[in-house]
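so the lab meeting is tmrw and i was supposed to have these ready like two days ago... anyway. pasting both below. for each one the top line is the aa sequence and the line under it is the structure tokens. i havent really looked at them closely yet so no promises
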Amino acid sequence: MTEKTEHTQIGIASIILGVFGLIFYIIGWFFFSFVDNRLYGMLIGLILSILAIVLGYIAKKHGDFYGNYGMILGGFVIIITVIIAILATPTSVEIG
């Protein structure tokens, strides 16, 4: 027989923020690039991801395993941000 675990609202909010952070990051990267304002969408996604990690940590302390999923989603967006920042940064400047 399985135990029924209660999920806190903080854990569910962590997952929702992680998913929205990923969606806003993808929208900011792909769709806002045509308007040359991709930074705003990516920044919103990054902020939501950080909030997902914080809420996930709080939910995990209360024993809700949904917090783990929110932390994983938030961490995934932050890792993608770091990789894209490294790859998109110019390494040399040509003058002339």
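ok protien two:
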Amino acid sequence: MGSVSIWHWIVVGIIVMLLFGRGKVSELMGDVAKGIKSFKKGMADDDVPVSSTQPTEPSKPVADHSAAAHATAPSEHKAG
């Protein structure tokens, strides 16, 4: 008791075939296979570097606002 033998799986398989019919089961398995193929293709696409698939703009340096504030401080601008 508690162990599942091959005969249990055969009985379960026969019940599933009777409930859903042979066509439904094969259609369902085909859909599962398509899903697995699509998942593998998506994973393979993620491995491709972004630079080879899409052109990117050169990055622009970010302006240092703290340096700009020090350069235009009123103490530095003295009328002579």
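from a quick look at the 2nd one: Residues 22-48 form one domain. The two ends are 101 Å apart (CA to CA). will dig more after coffe
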